[in-house]
Amino acid sequence: MTMRGExxxxxxxxxxxxxxxxxxxxxxxxxxxxxxxxxxxGLRPEDIDGIIGQESLNSMTLAEVLGAKPRYTASMTVHGAxxxxxxxxxxxxxxxGLANYVLCIFGESRVRSSSxxxxxxxxxxxxxxxxxxAEWEAPFGPVIAANGGYGLIKQRHMFEYSTKQEQFAKCAxxxxxxxxxxxxxxxxxxxxxxDDVLNSRYTNDPLHLLECVMPCSGGAAVxxxxxxxxxxxxxxxxxxxxxxxxxxxxxAIWQEEDVTTTPVIMSAPIALQMSEYSVNDIEFAEFYxxxxxxxxxxxxxxxxCPKGEVGGFYEDTDTTYKGSLPINTDGGQIAAGQPGGNAGxxxxxxxxxxxxxxRADERQVEKSDLCMVNG
Amino acid sequence: xxxxxxxxxxxxxPELTQPFWDAAKRHELVIPRCRRCNAYFxxxxxxxxxxxxxxxxxxPVSGRGRLHTxxxxxxxxxxxxxxxxxxxxxxxxxxxxxxxxxNIVDCEIPDGLAVDMPLKASYDDVADEWTLVKFKPA
Lengths: 375, 138
Ligand SMILES: [Zn+2]
Hints:
The structure holds two protein chains of two kinds. By secondary structure, chain A is α/β, with parallel strands linked by helices. In chain A, 38% of the residues lie in helices and 15% in strands. In chain A, the strands form three sheets. In chain A, strands 1, 2, 3, 4, 7, 8 and 10 form a seven-stranded mixed sheet that branches. Chain A has a two-stranded antiparallel sheet with strand order 5-6. Chain A is globular, with a radius of gyration of 20 Å. Chain A starts with 6 loop residues before the first strand and ends with a strand. The relative contact order of chain A is 0.19. The model of chain A is unreliable at 123-129 (pLDDT under 50). Chain B is mainly beta. Chain B has one domain: CATH 2.40.50.840. Chain B contains one helix and seven strands. Chain B is globular.
């Protein structure tokens, strides 16, 4: 027995992604987001009996802020994958009867600080558990934020598979096109070309600025309930047909045996098998995209093209919402922004839900019944 | 060397890793190798990550390897590296198979760098107590 089709997303709310929400705290945003999602699902606050929240905020604190008395709470702690993981966890929770209406909620009101302060904070955070960071990485001067690891991945991909800078740039250009008409996207209404990407400065070679996410403020929530309850609710249910992972094999990228292969190589087959569909059946995809290199490696590892051939895939495939295989139809994180509190990865869940419910307005994809999401 | 302001290694388990730093000071490279399954591994951990046995020893290695991948740093996370920009933050694969994080020195940055180029260990005595193992073109 699996949880195939046992649970569904029945409501969602997304706050527009902005650089800042001045004068507002994270919990203030989260309260508004929760209210929006509960209203969208046609529920009342007291109906929520499960809460799954972000890494940076204890879910008990969240329950207190929201005035909820949940039977089940948890915080997801798998970094960027927290948002999509909350959906598989919530589905399991409602299938098991531990809660009836689970609120999955992520977001942050981020205060922009000087680059120097950001650098100091990042320096303090360098590295991982135990001595790995402080003893074996920090003395060699890692790049600020996550840029370093993705520069390493991209460089190796270019070496092993002759992937070209123009092909990475096409990924960023398609995502930007998808953001143009998204009212919630940070880069709405601002198209870019392949040359714009190639002419943007190197954050760290071979990674260009326009291939990277921008940290932002905002957030989103969904309500997950059982398929049985979903039938009587106002929105068309978005059924969870399969889930796999988070199949993480390492924390530091340099500890991965094959640096160009992502954990999707493990999680996608599990999710597809549970769903009883094949990758060829997938109509559109929402894939974690903190950097072009990651969404591109995901496309390979999920099986949309053979390993190493994603460069050619991007040359031949229109991945905009008008295209043959729409990917990151809201602009993804690269073009719509990466709200904190794990809400960056969660935006892929939100956009999948929006498209399947048929509420993407001008961005609505032609075939929107079956989506693969990666966090 | 007294004015070295970049982060020095901060071992959380000094008993475990001191032999590495002692060897580096002698300009030698040693790597953990499992006595049971013969696997080399990096970074040092109490147990061999291949067989989970705690029976391994520090083993001298050649110091030769290849540039597995690299990125050119222009915005370091620690501002004290800013005078060195641009520099190479690299993953080096030793002949013995393990991969280490390091810098590539004695090399034009970025034009002298190429994935898979042969490298050899280069010892940087950054402080009285500390020698960092870096790599240079072989
Ligand atoms: Zn062993």
